[in-house]
Amino acid sequence: MEANCVGQTGRIRQAFPAKPACERSGSETLNANRAVTLSSNSDLENRILKVLDELTQKQHRLARFILDHQIYVAFASAQDVGQEAGVDAATVVRFSQRVGYDGFADLREAVRQTMPAFLTATEKITRTVAARGRKRAVIDLIFSQDVININATANANSNELLTETIRVLNRANEVYILGSGLSAPVASAFAHQLGLVGVSSRAVLGPFVQSAVEIAGVSKRDVVVAIGLWRYLRDTIELLAAAETIGATTIAMTDTRMSPLVKHASIVLLGSTQTPEIPHSVTPLITLCNALSSGLALVNPKRTLERLERIDRLYKASGLLVD
């Protein structure tokens, strides 16, 4: 979650108004095993995207819940889903029909069809939760969830897409990386990684006025990467839109194709960031950055070796390294 416990910050499309965890009562908070989710159900997501602009506020909230908790949805009733999403059962049924299913049972069956590869992991996690104390079970669950998230992220981004992204980054005059809130450390780490392989880059972390000055200097030969997770921050969206207007190549690194960053990006990279307790896991995004940086090193090994040797000489000359 980019900003915790804040109200609606703009158009529905820019922030799904689901309740932050800190606003939920104990009875409203999902059990740990419910929070384990599948990789993107592309058919369901595509159906939602087609009618996204026509959905009511309640339906937006419900759409976000269904996409984020598909294992729970696969075994729940319309009433159960409605209670967790903060809507009534009738809204769940109408939403299911609005996105092209006969009813909730039909939507639930479509979700179940995507589940076989994940059931074994889910069953193991559920047994762990039942067998151990809550605190240890949650720790085990988080490790297991991140493994699922990394696999889902790998599946969501094709080799062709990653190869094209590496090509674009490799040819950039300068790479600007936008990130605020929870995304800021990911942006900072990615800029550092790019620097290590010889790609000129900078992390643009705010505040807005300072970031706006930096983005105002972007040229058409530059690449601007925006990293943003639900709930999306307006500053990141507006700065990416500004870069798009200037004519820079824009890349969004986000958690769903319904993210408001997507409409301003020529390349979209998706990360599965689900976690049972904290708002988001950034581990899959860091892994995605690792993959891109490694790809860039392989594309131009001479540049990478020259940069690393130069860095090593500076470290040794300064006496910075302990060993």
Helix/strand layout:
Blueprint (H helix, E strand, L loop, with lengths): L41 H10 L5 H12 L1 H6 L2 H8 L3 H10 L5 H9 L3 H16 L2 H23 L2 H13 L3 E5 L4 H13 L4 E4 L3 H9 L6 E6 L5 H13 L2 E6 L12 E4 L12 H17 L1 H18 L5
Overview of the structural elements:
The protein has a 5-stranded parallel sheet, sandwiched between helices. The chain contains 14 helices and 5 strands. The protein folds into 2 domains: 12-154, Arc Repressor Mutant, subunit A; 157-317, Glucose-6-phosphate isomerase like protein, domain 1 (Rossmann fold), CATH 3.40.50.10490. With 323 residues, the protein is of the alpha/beta class. The longest helix has 23 residues, at 134-156.
Separation, N- and C-terminal Cα atoms: 39 Å
The whole-number mean of residue pLDDT values reads 82
Q: What share of residues is helical?
A: 40-55%
* Spatial order of strands in the largest sheet: 2-1-3-4-5
The dominant shape is elongated
| β-strand amount | 5-15%
The class by helix and strand makeup works out as alpha/beta
CATH fourth-tier homologous superfamily of the largest domain: Glucose-6-phosphate isomerase like protein, domain 1
Order of helices and strands: HHHHHHHHHEHEHEHEEHH
Radius of gyration: 21 Å
Total beta strand runs: 5
Q: Top keywords for this entry?
A:
single chain; 323 residues; alpha/beta; Rossmann fold; 2 domains; five-stranded parallel sheet; 14 helices
Concise account of the structure shown:
The protein is α/β, with parallel strands linked by helices.
